[in-house]
Amino acid sequence: MSDGGPLSTPEIIDQIELPIDSNQMLTEFSINLALQEDPRFDEVGPSGETLWFLHRSEPENVKSQPKFLIAENTNSYDDTKYSDYLTQMNAGVFDELEYAKLTKDANVKDVTISLIYPHVVSGTLPLSANLENLFPTAYESPRIRFTFVDGGSNEKFAGWVVREKKYVYGLKEWYQKNEVIPGSLIRIKQGKNPGEVIVSIGKKRSTREWVRTAAQTTEGKISFAMTQQIISTDFDERMTISITDFNQIENLWERYQNIPAEKLITNFVRELAKLNPQGHVHAQELYAAINFVKRVSPSYVLHLLENCADIEHLGDLYFRIKI
Q: CA-CA distances (angstroms) from residue 49 to 136, 144, 163?
């Protein structure tokens, strides 16, 4: 109830006017134990700091995983065989679904990431192994509250690390204010103060660019076209897909949930290939596009491409429909 923020144990003791005996440490230990056993409270402090928060006051997308981040139920496949392919993807691809296959680099202090649609619409970032070191950690707490800092304005706002599901929440309003779209490049670095993480976009002045644009057809399906759009951030050309109507695209998500990804792969390759004079599609472009209707990993997209009889690999992660 404290201005929407968590409280330390000494602050709680002071607020409830608990009589303190001569053993301050024992009193704090007793309060911590009581709160830990009470499901109404969450311990949300980073390592070395105990902070308590009312569970019911946490954002809904912290208490439960946003629907756009829930991965497609995939049949068992050998994802290790695609490790070499993943290294050929652009360096801006970070996906929490590939967490186990990437090496954590404790020395990383500054990362630029290209966002996919599920994270833009959810107001989140992936907590991949490459990014984990930039955010506060905890020994046991499933959810950790910290502070985002806007690298341009220095404005501060609350962020949450959701450790179990491997995502970071708290950026929805910031994305909207900065006109972030799928494919936008977001720079993330550790803040000057403990518990702070700086986020920024590359450029400030909007420019008109030819980019892939997602829309809904009259039949209620997703389609892609090359259109001129005003872009307000730096962006990855392979990952960028502009959206003219976010509500329209969000509604498409529900329409596609009962269609397995393997049933969509050929149509998506055809849809994207028509935008390229050579008629081929890069796996990274396909990964960004399919994630508009299904939450799938890069390696699963590669698996679908390799096992589709109608698609052939041209090399360097380029694919096309067989003639």
A: 11, 11, 17
Largest CA distance in the chain: 83
Q: Are 132 and 104 in contact (CB under 8 A)?
A: yes
Q: Are 147 and 158 in contact (CB under 8 A)?
A: yes
Q: Are 232 and 186 in contact (CB under 8 A)?
A: no
Query: Which token pair is 185?
Result: 């490049």
Secondary structure element (H or E) that encloses residue 121, with its range: helix 117-122
Q: Which two tokens stand for residue 207?
A: 């420019």
Token pair for residue 316?
A: 């360097």
Both tokens assigned to 199: 């986020």
CA dist 127 and 93 (Å) reads 12
Q: What is the pLDDT along the chain (323 residues), one digit of tens a residue?
A: 555 677 766 676 677 766 666 677 777 667 666 666 667 777 667 666 777 677 677 789 998 999 999 998 877 788 778 777 777 776 668 899 986 655 556 677 889 999 999 999 999 999 987 788 888 876 667 888 889 999 989 999 999 999 889 999 999 999 999 999 999 999 999 988 888 999 999 776 789 999 999 999 999 999 999 999 999 999 999 999 999 899 999 999 999 999 999 999 999 999 999 999 899 999 999 999 999 999 999 999 999 999 999 999 998 899 999 87
Q: Count helices and strands (H / E) in the chain.
A: 10, 16
Residue type, 198: I
The runs of H, that is alpha helices, within 16-82 are: 24-36, 60-63
From CA 47, how far away is CA 138, in angstroms rounded?
4
